[in-house]
Design brief:
40% of the residues lie in helices and 28% in strands. It is α+β, with helices and mostly antiparallel strands. Strand 3 and strand 4 form a beta hairpin. Helix 1 crosses helix 2. It is extended, with a radius of gyration of 20 Å.
């Protein structure tokens, strides 16, 4: 059974342009603007809600001790900020229906 590949950006743009009867340029502008808004709000506020999908969250990781896998030497891993995506229940349930 062949494995389906994820849609490319061009395929997504074409699909949305056809579905909503919009020029591709407008779809590209909208998607880029939406992504820019998500990045800016996550950086500024620490979170951005993507309705129907979930939430982009800026999270702080504490410093911790780790191990160099090559030498086995204990090393200190510094604290840092990471971006996480928390999926909404609706998104999870539509992809993987809950077991009864």
């Amino acid at each position: 059974m062949p494995v389906a590949k994820p849609m490319t950006k061009a395929q997504i743009i074409t699909h949305l342009a056809e579905k909503f009867e919009m020029p591709k340029k407008e779809v590209v502008t909208f998607l880029e603007g939406f992504a820019d808004l998500a990045y800016a709000q996550t950086k500024k506020v620490g979170a951005f809600v993507l309705p129907g999908f979930g939430k982009l969250v800026l999270s702080k990781r504490k410093a911790r001790m780790g191990r160099n896998p090559a030498t086995g030497e204990t090393i200190k891993i510094p604290a840092k900020k990471v971006v996480k995506m928390r999926l909404s229940k609706a998104c999870k349930d539509s992809i993987l229906p809950p077991k009864k």
